[in-house]
Amino acid sequence: MIFGLGLVVSGMCRPTKILGFLTLRETWDPTLLFVLLSAVAFNAVSFRLVLKRDAPVHNDKFELPDISANPDARLIIGSALFGAGWGLTGLCPGPALINTFVLSHVFLYMLAVAFGQVAYEQLNKIYIAR
Asked: Is 82:92 a contact under the CB 8 Å cutoff?
């Protein structure tokens, strides 16, 4: 709920705000940059504070990704598809979920996201089976 409230308050649920940032013209809107920098700063501080604990609240140990792992094709392709979808629509899944209840055309976007997740699971099964 806090994430959703932050998206609404910052205006990041409006595709025009996102597209205003992604379109480098005289009407460029830097709002998204400030939201991103605020989120990174908050997480950088809070992540360090949390990791000072011996273990998380609901687990025996922290489970962090291996930093030495190299990105694979699935990560790179998935990131590219996410970025392309975000740039074309001005929505990423978080704001889209909120807008599903406000804008009727976003429902189609959410169906496409769901289809993409199902397609990924099916392709991943084939990829892993090799």
From this structure: yes
Cα–Cα distance for residue pair 82/71, rounded to 1 Å: 16
- Once rounded to an integer, what is the mean pLDDT over residues 22-37? 88
CA distance 113 to 20: 23
Residue 78 CA to residue 109 CA, distance in Å, equals 17
Helix 31-51, helix 15-22: angle, nearest 10 = 100
Query: Residue 36's closest CA among 6, 74, 78, 5?
Result: 6
| pLDDT for position 96 | 84
93's CB contacts (< 8 A; 6+ apart) are: 110, 113
pTM: 0.65
What is the number of alpha carbons within 13 Å of residue 44 lying toward its C-beta? 6
Mean pLDDT of 60-66: 87
DSSP 12-33: TTSHHHHHHHHS-STT--THHH
Q: Are 50 and 39 in contact (CB under 8 A)?
A: no
Check whether 37 has a pLDDT greater than 90. yes
Boundaries of every domain in the chain: 2-129
